[in-house]
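Researcher: We're reviewing a set of sequences before deciding which ones to prioritize for further study. For each one, I'd like a predicted 3D structure that I can look through quickly. This is HD domain-containing protein. If possible, include the structure in token form so it fits the rest of the review sheet.
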Amino acid sequence: MPLDLTFRKEAEELVKEQMASYDPSHDWLHVDRVRRQALKIAREESSQGKTIDVELVELAALFHDIGDAKFHKEGQPTGREIVMAFLSKHSYQKAEDVAKIVENVSFRKELAGVKNEWAENSIELHIVQDADKLDAIGAFGIMRCAAYSGYKNRPLYDPEEKAQLNMTYEQYQAQTKANAGCAISHFHEKLFRLKDMMKTPSAIKMAQKRHDRMVLFVQQIEEEFSMDE
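Model: Here's the predicted structure for HD domain-containing protein, in token form for your review sheet.
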């Protein structure tokens, strides 16, 4: 079932308030794209006979970046706490399910490699994860990578830097803490990996074209830097 219009409006206002202090790569417009992408995947997967809680998908997609670890400051409420407070106020019965998706949706969580039966089998989690990954690659992914690098004052391209291929969770955490790495290295370290991390058949089909756009973009960056044009 679709969300009640008043409930949806209040949820959107909460997200806009939370995203107001984030950079353009994690703003309300990013969240709205992920929400629309998640609903598209849900429709396509439903057409293949899968049973999907579309209401849960939409709410989890809306809230997926609340309390993002990249922006969370010590002493602030966690994403779970903010989401649960809002949904409890509205007596929403599936609040715990929404919060679990928000807690588990990120690339960082997947990289940590913590396995549990719920995360392995929740189609709603997989849809929101795939929608978020799709917005991290392709043309929007390129712009978002540049925007976040600017926000963190990281170089766009450093030819002396060697990307950490097959980066582990520990390496990812250390790099984040040190605010290290350039934008182009981020393609090799994370963005080029996302195509093969998609979980739903719908997203797997969508990802290849976006992946190819990024590969071409990075090739063009290297050509321009080397003056080989």
